[in-house]
Every structure is written in C-alpha cells, then in structure tokens.
Amino acid sequence: MLSFDIRSLESQPAQVEGDLVATDPVWEEADGRPDAAVHVTGRLSAVGANRFYFSGRLEGALATECRRCLKAITVPVADDAHFFFAEAGADEADDPEVFLIDPRDAQLDLRPAVREQWLLAVPSWSLCREDCQGLCPQCGVDRNVTDCGHRPGATTDSRWDALKALKGQPES
Ligand SMILES: [Zn+2]
Ligand SMILES: [Zn+2]
Q1: For residue 131, which ligand has an atom nearest its CA?
Q2: Can you give the CATH number for the domain in which 65 is found?
Q3: Distance from the alpha carbon of residue 39 to the mean position of ligand 1, in angstroms
Q4: Whole-number Å distance between alpha carbons of 49 and 162
Q5: How far apart are CA 124 and CA 62, in angstroms?
Q6: What is the pLDDT of residue 162?
Q7: Residue 41 in domain
Q8: Ligand 1 mean position to 59 CA, how many Å?
Q9: What is the domain count for the chain?
C-alpha cells in the first residue's frame, strides 16, 4: 500500500511499508522495471499545511539483460529516498524536486515518486559478471559457453550480421 489518506497524515505520520509491483500501471513502456517489486520502507509525515515529507528506502532487483552477452539477469538496487510533496500553487510548486499533489485529492500516492527515484537509482547498463566474454562478433556464439576460436580484431564486417542472426534465432 503506497497511498495514504491526507487527512490522517495531517494528524499523525504514517509508517510506510509497501511494494510497487512490476505490473503496476504507473510504469511506462521504456522503464527498467523490477523483477517483482520495489520494496518501499520509511516514514511519511506532514511538515506544515499541505506539505508532506517522505524519508525512507527503496530496495529491489532490476530485471535487465547483460550488455555483452544479452542474457537475462537481475541486478540488486537499493537507494535512500527523500520526497517532498506540496499542493499545486504552493510556494514550493516551482521547485522541480517537489512532487505536486492536487488539492482535490484525498490520498497521497507515493508511486510516481517511487518510480522516478527507482529510475534514477538503476544502472544504465549491467553485466552478468565482471569478466563476461560476450558474444563473438564474427559468429555470434556466447563466448562464455563456447570457444569458437575467433579472435577479436580479425574482421569487423560481419559483427552486426552475426548479432542480428543470433537475435533472430528462435529460443532452443
Ligand atoms: Zn554476459
Ligand atoms: Zn566466433
């Protein structure tokens, strides 16, 4: 549960413990999503009229692929999170760091802020392991599995053809 009743927040802070699941509609098409969910813990409290502050932590595992061999992998991600929310029209509303809340809303929804923070925290690329040998640029085999005998630098012409051919193959 990442949605909180604004009225009750005004009288007392809320302990936050919830999951933003990978299938949540808040995610957009190109987002690097978690394998299952982003686990959110922390505290959400009012800091003045119609202003709220969240302090806590995000944890999860990014579902992605190895940059070199394209194998599906998960990468642990953990980050501290601090969000400031203010009602649209407040003095702070121009600050890009501030998340706006609609004065008509009865609930404060943490999900958009969690999504943004998660996207900032995930690595832009990952490897299945530090010394991943990647795909052979000439024949496309996974060099972690097979030594095809090709050596880097012999030719460059066929590298993209080989990759394209490999990606086009059905899973066996
Ligand atoms: Zn790899
Ligand atoms: Zn090869």
Answers
A1: 1
A2: 3.30.450
A3: 27
A4: 61
A5: 11
A6: 65
A7: yes
A8: 23
A9: 2
Q: Say if 92 falls within a structural domain.
A: yes
Is pLDDT larger for residue 75 or for residue 161? 75
Cα–ligand 2 centroid distance for 151 (angstroms): 7
| Entry pTM | 0.81
Domain region containing 107 = 3-121
pLDDT digits (tens, 9 = 90+) for 85-114: 998 877 777 787 899 998 899 999 999 999
Share of the chain above pLDDT 90, in %: 76
Q: Angle CA(71)–CA(77)–CA(78) in degrees, nearest 5?
A: 170
Better-predicted residue by pLDDT, 49 or 155 = 49
Alpha carbon of 40 to ligand 1 centroid (Å): 29
- Residues 6 or more apart from 87 whose CB is under 8 A from it? 50, 51, 93, 100, 101, 102, 103
Residues with CB under 5 A from ligand 1 (ion): 66, 68-69, 128, 132
Same domain, 82 and 107: yes
Residue with tokens 């501030």: 98
Neighbours of ion ligand 2 (CB under 5 A): 136, 138-139, 148, 150
Residue 1 confidence (pLDDT): 82
pLDDT tier at 164, thresholds 50, 70, 90:
low
Task: Tell me whether residue 93 is in a domain.
Answer: yes
- Tell me: do 103 and 139 sit in the same domain: no
Q: How far is the CA of 132 from the centre of ligand 1 (A)?
A: 5
Distance (angstroms) between ligand 2 centre and the Cα of 153 equals 12
Q: Is residue 86 part of a domain?
A: yes
